[in-house]
Amino acid sequence: MTSANVKIGVVGAGTMGSGIAQISAQAGFETVVYDVSQEFIDKGLERVRASLQRFAARGKITAEEERRILARLTGSLKLEGLSASALVIEAAPEQLDLKREIFKKLDALCAPETLLATNTSSFSVTAIAGATRLPERVLGMHFFNPPPLMALVEVIRAERTSPAVVEKGLALARQLGKTPVTAKDTPGFIVNRIARPFYNEALRILSDDQAEVLTVDRVMKEAGGFPMGPFELMDLIGIDINFAATQSLYEASFHDPRFRPSPIQQRMLLAGNLGRKTGRGFYSYGQK
Questions:
Q1: Residue 119 designated active-site
Q2: Per the domain annotation, does 283 fall within a domain?
Q3: Within this chain, do residues 163 and 213 fall inside the same structural domain, yes or no?
Q4: Is residue 28 one of the residues assigned to a domain?
Q5: Is 121 annotated as catalytic?
Q6: Is 192 a catalytic site residue?
Q7: pLDDT tens by residue, 68-92
Q8: Are residues 267 and 180 in the same domain?
Q9: Engineered SS bond to 288: which of 70, 206, 263, 279, CB 3.0-4.6 Å?
Q10: DSSP string covering 19-81
């Protein structure tokens, strides 16, 4: 599939959705971003503009390329605006009922050959596909934050996803400039399954007063060679997103104690301290 005259739809103009839309437009695809309010769409497109301006300032793209990329991006307040897409990538909030409702609607709106992908980081792709009449065309395409900079995409085959759809998903991920890996539809897929102890053990250390946030992050970076410590990374991802992923994996693993969510994150979530996007998490980033 070439990018010429091919449209990609993105559901959700948040951090992940706008990032996915950006890489789609950068790869030459006409890209439509859907969200429930014009304010969300405007914020998402502004996020893309700011990202492209940083790329241009670093000499990674020219001013003309920036203009062409933005020209390929449009917003829509109606899900019907995605109906002509060859691929629709859902990047809505991590709520299973919401995702299933979105896929039920997309299934009715889009042509049978349209690929429907979910960017879920933790929910069962099979459960999401179960809301559709054609689960064979549903797959997972899990991008990582921030999508314009992170190379990896997990391509997940659900219980009834056809092999041909998986191959198309892999090919499209490569066209988007990403490095895809296939994963089974198991709790946490690959990356979140591995990463959960990284976060959870750091939170247990903090809960047990064994070390402070700064100390844990510094040790992991200086001794462990990690580019970011666990608390810095949670702030970047968003406490709400990270907590939701942990909850989902805990439930899906039948309450395996290794994946038990931390009360620390729950308190931060209730207080609205979600990390960088709210200006305060484990660190302070200035009031927003």
A1: no
A2: no
A3: no
A4: yes
A5: yes
A6: yes
A7: 999 999 999 999 999 999 999 999 9
A8: no
A9: 279
A10: HHHHHHHHTT-EEEEE-SSHHHHHHHHHHHHHHHHHHHHTTSS-HHHHHHHHHTEEEESSGGG
